[in-house]
Design a protein that fits this description.
single chain; mainly alpha; 8 helices; 78% helix; globular
């Protein structure tokens, strides 16, 4: 049963990675109707694969790494879709969005320098940010007008998550996955402390 669950759950994660490229194609081909529904499915699979992995005790380093890639590609597809299908909103909020994008690339860059690969912390803030991002993007494409309170909540939580993850990169000497957050790293005596160099 565990082996079957492992393949199914990782298959869901791989689906999200493959579907991201299909989302990019739908943007290029100019199919916003199909794009918005496939994006919704991708965000939904992001919610269920991690939950199922924990439920069936089939969490793995490879699975967490692939999940992070799938998450980033899905959000990137949503952002690109926003540029082509919701440009007025993107332009209106460009300063907030590009600030977040800058912090995202800073976090990725720090992780690549530190660990030679992207991080996969899956902090509690990251999970909350993913829920808010997914909810906002789905509703942005489904509804005629953006839900601004949800947008600002997603921006705030995502910003806090990125700052926390940048700090975690400097705190943890070795690449780790499923790190709840700074508080739990400090609480756990086995966790590494920031370099004193």
């Amino acid at each position: 049963m565990q082996r079957t669950a492992f393949y199914i759950i990782n298959g869901i994660t791989l689906y999200r990675i493959v579907s991201a490229f299909l989302l990019f194609y739908l943007i290029y081909a100019g199919h916003p109707e199909i794009f918005k529904w496939l994006l919704a499915v991708s965000f939904f699979t992001d919610l269920i694969d991690g939950y199922l992995a924990r439920k069936f005790h089939v969490e793995s380093v490879a699975g967490s790494f692939l999940d992070s890639i799938g998450d980033d590609l899905t959000v990137l597809a949503g952002m690109v879709g926003m540029y082509f299908f919701k440009y007025e909103f993107l332009f209106e909020q460009r300063y907030l969005l590009f600030t977040l994008l800058g912090f995202f690339f800073l976090q990725i860059g720090a992780s690549l320098v530190r660990y030679k690969k992207i991080s996969s912390f899956h902090t509690l803030l990251a999970k909350l940010a993913a829920i808010l991002q997914g909810s906002f993007m789905i509703l942005l494409f489904l509804l005629p007008d953006p839900i601004y309170p949800l947008f600002y909540a997603a921006i705030l939580v995502t910003f806090l998550d990125l700052v926390e993850e940048i700090i975690l990169v400097f705190m943890l000497r070795e690449w780790k996955t499923n790190v709840k957050g700074i508080y739990w790293v400090l609480k756990n005596k086995k966790s590494s402390l920031p370099d004193s160099q």
